[in-house]
Amino acid sequence: MTAAYPAEKDHPAVPMGALYAGHPPVSRIAFPSGHEGWLVTRYDDVRTVFADPRFSRRLLYPGAPCLIEPGDFSTGEHSILNMDPPDHTRLRRLSAQAFTVRRIAALRPRIQEIADDLLRAMTGHGPPADLVEEFAFPLPTAVICELLACRSPAGHGSGSGRG
């Protein structure tokens, strides 16, 4: 059986794992791009796949399956999402320094302020509201811009930025 990925949800609060509970732990899936791949759902199996060098994140070869059509940030040649160790490990270690528990805890008041601003803007225009477009996407974008001291597209951020 080939499942669609991501699965259709009747309600956004339904966990993705619940949607695939009836499928085998390793299932053939069809991505929105039309490509097919494999979905591994059990924790131990996922860890095995991630640790096995026979599996690769580098999906830039001709005909490689992709989740969505090429052209988004994840399909770039230099995207960390398309890197295998040791390049992925090096960049992950560098970026992890910015996401320490202490650093994020220090940013908590600013993150709350950004969240409050986004919620105020979203509720200010009345229903309907697009939670993803108006909150779930801009919040982490603005927080990362805070970490990098640049201005986010929404105008949040502590740096002088270019946006």
UniProtKB/TrEMBL annotation:
GO molecular function: heme binding; iron ion binding; monooxygenase activity; oxidoreductase activity, acting on paired donors, with incorporation or reduction of molecular oxygen
Segment forming the signal sequence: none
Entries under SUPFAM superfamilies matching the protein: Cytochrome P450 (SSF48264)
InterPro entries the UniProt entry points to: Cyt_P450_B, Cyt_P450_sf
Family listed: Belongs to the cytochrome P450 family.
Listed name of the protein: Cytochrome P450
Organism: Amycolatopsis vastitatis
